[in-house]
Amino acid sequence: MADLLVDDVSLTYVSKKEATSALVDISFTVKDGEFISILGPSGSGKTTLLSLVAGILSPTSGKITLNGVPTTSKHANIGYMLQQDYLFPWLSIEANISLGQKILGADSKDSIEQAKSLLEQVGLTDKLTHYPSQLSGGMRQRVALVRMLATNPSLLLLDEPFSALDYQTKLKLEDLVATILKEKQKTAILVTHDIGEAIAMSDRVLLLSARPGRIAKIFDVPKEIREGLPFEARQLPSYTELFNEIWKELESLEANST
User: Fold this and answer.
1) How many structural domains does the chain have?
2) 163: containing domain
3) Cα(119)–Cα(145) distance, rounded to whole angstroms?
4) Which domain of life is it from (predicted)?
5) Which residue among 119, 137, 152 closes a domain?
6) Which of 23, 59, 128, 181 has the greatest number of beta carbons closer than 10 A?
7) pTM for this structure?
8) Is residue 225 a contact partner of residue 236, using CB atoms and an 8 Å limit?
9) Sheet holding 155-159, edge to edge
């Protein structure tokens, strides 16, 4: 179970010279098993919002809880996947995927076997004894996904995890990640600058305004998109319609910020 509540959250950076508002009055919920994406103009605070949800930053006002527990608490079980894989180059792939389990003291024989099973699911069983330098960028991101899932987090945070990959690899990974998260009924938040990716992978899309970031609009993704794979979703008329709607809204926000 993983229900996330972001309640009237604001974040202000204070220096000796001035106070700068990064996010203002952000409120939304993410239900158990739901996948949402966050879009917005450059500098709107997308990654900052994800850092707040992760508990890396604390809000100036408001609260963020996961199943009633503040996300800043060590008891909040949250996984984070970034644009870079951050695999340890001196560790084998087997050691990398079990690292989170070891840190949490959950590296039992069964849990390590589950991590290996996840690696098999992403098609990399034959890479167990390899090192990160021996893998392609797409392979390393699959390993990073397994490392995150191996700790069985209640909430997954994905910060542009496919943006550094070539387009074909990106599309394949979108399908893989969407399939695994649906199978495991995981709750997830994706930050992306790619409108198409947000639509194809999500149940809802949150659009932030330019700084200070506020929720400008929330889009519900049509059922026929949500039920298929991201690659297939891109072929649907409803995908194109929603893409154009979000594009126009985003352009309007960017125009108003200049």
Assistant:
1) 2
2) 4-77+154-257
3) 9
4) Bacteria
5) 152
6) 23
7) 0.91
8) yes
9) 78-81, 155-159, 187-191, 35-39, 204-208, 215-220
66: β partners: 4, 69
> Which pLDDT belongs to residue 1?
53
Q: 3-state SS of the chain?
A: CCCEEEEEEEEEEECCCCEEEEEEEEEEEECCCCEEEEECCCCCCHHHHHHHHHCCCCCCEEEEEECCEECCCCCCCEEEECCCCCCCCCCCHHHHHCHHHHHCCCCCHHHHHHHHHHHHHCCCHHHCCCCHHHCCHHHHHHHHHHHHHHCCCCEEEEECCCCCCCHHHHHHHHHHHHHHHHHCCCEEEEECCCHHHHHHHCCEEEEECCCCECEEEEEECCHHHHCCCHHHHCCCHHHHHHHHHHHHHHHHHHHHHC
Are 161 and 209 found together in one domain? Answer: yes
The rounded average pLDDT for each run of 10 residues, N- to C-terminus, in the chain (258 residues) is 87 83 94 94 90 92 92 84 87 88 73 83 88 91 88 89 85 88 90 94 95 93 94 94 95 77
The CATH number assigned to the domain holding 230 equals 3.40.50.300
Count of other CB atoms within 10 angstroms of residue 258: 6
- Do 231 and 160 lie in one domain? The reply is yes
Nearest-angstrom CA–CA distance, 53 and 80: 10
Clarify whether residues 178 and 53 are in a common domain: yes
C-alpha span between 104 and 126 (Å, rounded): 26
